[in-house]
């Protein structure tokens, strides 16, 4: 097992290297000049040229790329061109905000998605099945910005239940320790703030959960349908095993592998940040951070930000592969 | 029996949903309309200001973006202030000032007894140190210093010869040559006076922990989320500021920001879409604020690209485009038709100029005279992002496309991502392009020279328009200290621009803000830097 993990980690190196190269080339291939953006529209040509030289942007691309790689190996993610702060320092608060939202959304997506899929498969072709699958179809197709704004309108303004935007009640701000506010408020015993933080998570969490929820529901359903037809399910039922147990204990265990794969992939995507959700809900996550950096041609932020996101993505998938063997002991990595 | 199982499943499902949404039950401290009485901690008068983006740095001299200025204007003060809602010059940290006859020496008398937030005394030496700091910088560290004062120490273009202290409360500026907008430049938020103790200690990290003399002190910055400033208890103007805390929140989406305003999550919101003005006016809990216009939205024509080298073609475009229709449809009336490259609020505006009227027939004649009786085909560049001077570039472009089709010109709308758009347009790659400008200091030079002079080609003169006569006038105006003579020069400059027509000036928009109805004393400033000293809740 350890050997397998080691091998997989080694395989990551070329993947991440290739990724850095592609990102590096793409961000430079598009027109737009970071020096110009930093200095603003007022700047003279000479000033722009001087700043380019200072930032090393006048060097040939391979020199710049090599420099970037060497810094990465030294654990240095570079410095933002715009704010002049180290990317490594800037990154964490954004990443923490994204992790908090992504985990919350994924919990919603898994609980509802998996159960809806199971019940749909159990009562195939029933009204529940049809309704759930139509909802799933809507879930993957509804535009997030519409859903988000509607959520704000209905639950925020009309029903006055939930806050519309942001991570916290800014009038009663959370003192950040880890950056994960759910944990920070608990550590400090601020239960009033803990409630606030959860309330702020609900609307963006649901908006973000819709797509993975729908995908998980459909995957669970089809995987369960296959398993429900197998011999051991019939055997279990003929022995008088309760249907609930048959479905949730025996069938689910056999059907869960493809669902796990989907959950892993979706989790990776969510952790990459969700620009639309973050924009609609004013959520200070990593998606917007990188997206804004693209607009400002903040090369170090884009390069290092995407590298970190890609790293998380592949690690989650590795974790899912390891989980396979936990869930299904027949799968062995040797 | 079977039914029972279904029920147990439904219960399970409902239970899991409740688990997922567990939250809402266990609190209720917020939720009520928040304005005024504020939250459970800190002072009791907290204003939450919702805006589109985060600041880049809170050291205003080091950045160029408006969102940074918006916060910095409340932490720092300048030697001179702009008027409440215009760019006239008023006392600031300097209570009196005097210019020499030749316009080369300015003497400022400073307020006494003012202290920076860190306890450092504000005096002439502090002012000198601030200007020394900027003059010894470079374009990277202090971009605006370069554009407003012509360069840095040792540069030929640098306007300021020396800044010296005469006693504790007198500062003398000596200039190398007269600079007409000098006082307006000094009043810009970018040149807010910071504590020398703090910037000598923090160096380029000063922007993370800004220390000024302003009505509010910096408290906390959660990037991309919120910036908190609190009342400066020792502020030198008695009884001010009235608010205890101000929190600037970034909510990028205009509709979401409006939702937050209606809900009461924010008390004041900028970037209100003109189409949402009615919603705010119709809501008893809200009020609408107008920011006096100091901008211009225009269609530029690149004169180095055929057929736009011919002034007749450019004039034809001016007659072909229905500005009123554009303003009615996309600015919802919150704009004024533009006929000059500078807005009417700016001193030197030439109101005697007759704008080109909407007259497609006249336009066709002009095109025929220019040798294009059957029109031609061209690319029309549409801005990809909303800006205060152009709320919806794509839709405006569609109207223009239709107007041009009526005179036989086939316009293909193209667009690029914003930074790409600016870069390509500045290289003269666009036939005709939508763009605009918001003034920095309310001076005509900051519009006409910055946007249409030959020396601005490559920076902000995207049209490559180059007129020697105009250039001479603009250079003369830069050093003309007599206001009337200067205005005459600008009047003439506007006539030349009108005749040559490198642009179709479209609109001077009025940016809108929304606020809760109990806000008092808020005055939106045309520069976009709103000073919140007098703001209060009823």
UniProtKB/TrEMBL annotation, chain A:
TM segment ranges: 12-30, 91-118, 130-155, 201-220, 255-281, 301-324
One GO cellular component term of this record is:
plasma membrane
- Could you tell me the membrane topology recorded for this protein? Multi-pass membrane protein
The UniProt keyword set, sorted, is: Cell membrane, Membrane, Transmembrane, Transmembrane helix, Transport
Location within or outside the cell:
Cell membrane
Record-annotated ABC transmembrane type-1 domain positions: 95-324
Q: A GO biological process this protein is involved in? A: transmembrane transport
Q: Keyword check for Repeat, yes or no.
A: no
Instruction: Report the sequence similarity comment from the record.
Output: Belongs to the binding-protein-dependent transport system permease family.
The protein depicted here goes by the name Peptide/nickel transport system permease protein
TrEMBL record, chain B:
Which InterPro entries does the record associate with it? Peptide/Ni-bd (IPR030678), SBP_5 (IPR039424), SBP_5_dom (IPR000914)
Record's superkingdom? Bacteria
Query: In the record, what terms sit under GO molecular function?
Result: peptide transmembrane transporter activity
Membrane-traversing stretches: none
Please list the residue ranges annotated as the Solute-binding protein family domain.
88-453
Where does the record locate the signal sequence feature? 1-20
Q: Which GO terms describe its cellular component?
A: ATP-binding cassette (ABC) transporter complex; periplasmic space
- Give the matching PROSITE patterns: PROKAR_LIPOPROTEIN (PS51257)
**One annotated GO biological process:** peptide transport
Keywords linked to the UniProt accession = Signal, Transport
Regarding protein family, the annotation reads: Belongs to the bacterial solute-binding protein 5 family.
Q: What is this protein called?
A: Peptide/nickel transport system substrate-binding protein/oligopeptide transport system substrate-binding protein
Q: Which organism is it from?
A: Edaphobacillus lindanitolerans
């Amino acid at each position: 097992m350890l050997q397998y993990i080691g091998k997989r980690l080694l395989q990551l190196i070329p993947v991440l290297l290739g990724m850095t190269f592609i990102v590096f080339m793409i961000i430079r291939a598009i027109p737009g000049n970071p020096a110009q953006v930093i200095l603003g529209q007022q700047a003279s040509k000479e000033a722009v040229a001087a700043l380019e030289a200072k930032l090393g942007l006048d060097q040939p691309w391979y020199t710049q790329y090599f420099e970037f790689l060497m810094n990465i190996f030294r654990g240095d993610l570079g410095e933002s061109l715009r704010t002049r702060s180290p990317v490594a320092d800037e990154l964490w608060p954004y990443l923490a905000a994204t992790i908090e939202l992504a985990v919350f959304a994924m919990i919603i997506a898994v609980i509802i998605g998996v159960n809806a899929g199971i019940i749909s498969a159990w009562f195939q072709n029933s009204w529940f099945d049809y309704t759930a699958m139509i909802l799933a179809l809507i879930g993957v197709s509804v535009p997030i910005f519409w859903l988000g704004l509607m959520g704000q309108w209905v639950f925020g303004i009309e029903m006055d239940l939930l806050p519309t935007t942001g991570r916290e009640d800014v009038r009663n701000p959370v003192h950040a320790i880890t950056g994960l506010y759910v944990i920070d408020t608990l550590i400090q015993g601020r239960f009033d703030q803990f409630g606030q933080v959860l309330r702020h998570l609900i609307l963006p969490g649901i908006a973000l959960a819709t797509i993975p929820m729908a995908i998980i529901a459909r995957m669970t359903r089809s995987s369960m349908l296959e398993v429900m037809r197998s011999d051991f399910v019939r055997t279990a039922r003929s022995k008088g095993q309760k249907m609930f147990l048959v479905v949730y204990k025996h069938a689910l265990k056999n059907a869960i592998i493809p669902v796990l794969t989907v959950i892993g992939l979706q989790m990776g995507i969510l952790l990459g940040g969700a620009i639309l959700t973050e924009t609609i809900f004013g959520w200070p996550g990593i998606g917007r951070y990188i997206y804004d950096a693209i607009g400002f041609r903040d090369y170090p932020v884009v390069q290092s930000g995407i590298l970190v996101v890609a790293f998380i993505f592949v690690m989650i998938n590795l974790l899912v592969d390891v989980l396979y063997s936990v869930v299904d002991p027949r799968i062995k990595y040797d | 029996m079977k039914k029972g199982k279904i029920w147990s499943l439904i219960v399970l499902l409902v239970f899991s949903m409740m688990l997922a949404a567990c939250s809402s039950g266990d609190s209720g401290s917020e939720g009520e309309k928040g304005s005024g009485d504020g939250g459970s901690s800190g002072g009791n008068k907290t204003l939450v200001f919702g805006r589109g983006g985060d600041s880049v740095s809170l050291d205003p001299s080091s950045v160029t973006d408006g969102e940074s200025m918006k916060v910095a204007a409340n932490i720092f003060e300048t030697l001179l202030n702009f008027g409440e809602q215009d760019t006239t010059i008023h006392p600031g940290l300097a209570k009196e000032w005097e210019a020499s006859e030749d316009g080369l020496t300015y003497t400022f008398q400073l307020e006494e007894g003012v202290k920076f937030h860190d306890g450092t005394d504000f005096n002439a030496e502090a002012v000198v140190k601030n200007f020394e700091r900027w003059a010894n910088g470079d374009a990277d560290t202090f971009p605006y210093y370069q554009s407003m004062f012509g360069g840095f120490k040792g540069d030929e273009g640098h306007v300021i010869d020396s800044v010296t202290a005469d006693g504790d409360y007198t500062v003398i500026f000596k200039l190398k040559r007269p600079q007409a907008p000098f006082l307006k430049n000094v009043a810009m938020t970018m040149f807010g006076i910071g504590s020398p103790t703090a910037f000598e200690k923090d160096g380029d990290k000063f922007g993370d922990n800004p220390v000024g003399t302003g009505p509010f002190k910096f408290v906390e910055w959660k990037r991309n989320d919120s910036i908190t400033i609190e009342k400066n208890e020792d502020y030198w103007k008695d009884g001010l500021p009235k608010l205890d805390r101000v929190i600037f929140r970034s909510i990028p989406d205009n509709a979401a920001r409006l939702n937050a305003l209606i809900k009461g999550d924010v008390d004041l919101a900028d970037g209100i879409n003109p189409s949402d003005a009615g919603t705010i006016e119709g809501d008893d809990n809200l009020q609408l604020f107008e920011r006096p216009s100091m901008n211009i939205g225009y269609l530029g024509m690149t004169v180095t690209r055929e057929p736009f080298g011919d002034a007749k073609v450019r004039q034809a475009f001016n007659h072909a485009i229905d500005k009123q229709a554009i303003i009615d449809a996309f600015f919802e009336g919150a704009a004024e038709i533009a006929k000059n490259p500078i807005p009417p609020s700016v001193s030197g505006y030439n109101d005697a100029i007759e704008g080109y009227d909407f007259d497609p027939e006249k336009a066709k004649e002009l095109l025929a005279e220019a040798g294009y009786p059957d029109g031609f085909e061209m690319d029309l560049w549409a801005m990809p992002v909303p800006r205060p001077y152009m709320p919806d570039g794509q839709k405006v472009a569609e109207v223009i496309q239709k107007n041009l089709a009526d005179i036989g010109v086939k316009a293909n709308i193209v667009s690029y991502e914003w930074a790409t758009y600016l870069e390509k347009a500045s290289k003269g790659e666009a036939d005709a392009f939508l763009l605009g400008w918001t003034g920095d200091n309310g001076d005509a030079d900051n519009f006409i020279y910055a946007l249409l002079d030959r020396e601005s080609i490559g920076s902000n003169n995207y049209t490559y328009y180059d007129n020697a006569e105009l250039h001479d006038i603009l250079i003369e105006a830069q050093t003309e200290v007599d206001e009337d003579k200067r205005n005459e020069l600008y009047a003439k400059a506007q006539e030349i621009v009108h005749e040559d027509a490198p642009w179709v000036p479209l609109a001077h928009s009025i940016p809108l803000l929304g606020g809760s109805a109990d806000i008092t004393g808020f005055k939106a400033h045309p520069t976009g830097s709103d000073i919140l000293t007098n703001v209060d809740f009823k």
